[in-house]
Amino acid sequence: MVLTAIGYFLVAGTFEGWFPYPNITESGVDLLGHAIAVVNTLATICLVAGWYWIRKGAVDKHRKAMGSAFGLILVFLVMYLPKVGGGGQKAIADAAPDLVALGYFIMLAIHIVLSALAMPVVVYALLLGLSHTPSELRETRHAQIGRIAAASWILSLVLGVATYVILNHTYGNTFEPAFVLLF
C-alpha cells in the first residue's frame, strides 16, 4: 500500500504543481509522448507474454515478463511526470468529429480510472510474486489477483495507446501548458 500511496502522491502532486520540474518545450512534450507510447506498448507485450507463459507453466519466463512490465511502468512514470509537470499535455482538436471525440474521452476516462484502480492490485500481485516461491504462491491468491491485475492493466495500456494514436496521429491536438488542473 505504501508504494501505491507514493505513486498516487507523485501523480496528484505533479498535477497540483507541488513539485518543480524543468521547463519542457512543446516539442519535448511531443517526444516524451511518443516515447511513453512505445514504453506502454512494450509493457503490454510483456504482460501478454507473461500471461501466456504462466498458462504454459513457464514460471521463470512469466516472472521476468511481469517484472519487466512493472519496470517499464516505472520508466513511464519517470517520463510522464516531468512531461505533465514541466511541459504540459495535449487535448483532442476541436476539428475531430463529435462521435470520435466522445469515443476518445470515454477511452481516456476508462484508461485513467483503470490505471488508478489497477495499481494497488498490480503492486500486491507483484509483491506476492517476489516474496514467495512458486510452490508457496499456490497457497496464496496470487493467481486470482494476478488475473485481475493483468487484465485491467492490459486494458488500461491498450486504451492509453489508442488515445495516443487518436490524439497524435489521427485527428490532431491542442497543447495545454503545464499545471493545467484536471479537477
From TrEMBL:
InterPro entries: DUF420. The chain crosses the membrane at residues 31-53, 65-82, 102-127, 148-167. Keywords: Membrane, Transmembrane, Transmembrane helix. It comes from the Archaea. PANTHER family: DUF420 DOMAIN-CONTAINING PROTEIN, HYPOTHETICAL MEMBRANE SPANNING PROTEIN. This is Uncharacterized membrane protein YozB, DUF420 family. It comes from Natranaeroarchaeum sulfidigenes.
